[in-house]
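tokens incoming
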């Protein structure tokens, strides 16, 4: 795919103001971006573990559709949380998040689709399908972490 053209100025914004805004964006605080994406992943694991516990308890899967939908929304935006130069020392991302961008974006999209399917099965009340799809979602998460995340240190 060809690179995206530069974003045009917003209505009522001069080209100079737009250029300054875009320059400010390139100087963003990457530490805060890393903190935001780590918070997003922590919320995702909380949703994931809540769904896992709900399946184990035999909860009505209709009640588990919302956290699955939230995971799908997060999956759709994961790549935006990894802009260039946000590979700070606090980051758990491997360098190939940026060097294999197409693969990383495909992995995030795969997770989003798996979570969306999970949410749809939950809304439909399909308990067996929901449990099977949860395992498929877990697999997509694991594949992405294996490929694009630093291994966790054993404590």
């Amino acid at each position: 795919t060809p690179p995206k053209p530069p974003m045009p100025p917003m209505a009522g914004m001069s080209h100079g103001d737009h250029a300054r805004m875009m320059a400010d964006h390139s100087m963003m605080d990457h530490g805060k971006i890393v903190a935001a994406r780590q918070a997003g992943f922590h919320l995702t694991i909380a949703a994931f573990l809540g769904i896992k516990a709900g399946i184990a308890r035999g909860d009505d899967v209709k009640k588990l559709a919302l956290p699955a939908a939230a995971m799908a929304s997060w999956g759709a935006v994961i790549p935006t949380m990894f802009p260039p130069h946000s590979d700070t020392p606090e980051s758990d991302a491997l360098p190939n998040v940026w060097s294999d961008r197409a693969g990383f974006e495909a992995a995030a999209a795969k997770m989003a689709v798996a979570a969306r399917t999970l949410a749809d099965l939950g809304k439909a009340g399909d308990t067996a399908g929901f449990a099977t799809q949860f395992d498929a979602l877990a697999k997509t998460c694991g594949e992405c972490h294996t490929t694009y995340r630093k291994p966790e240190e054993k404590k």
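note: Residues 30-57 form the longest helix (28 residues).
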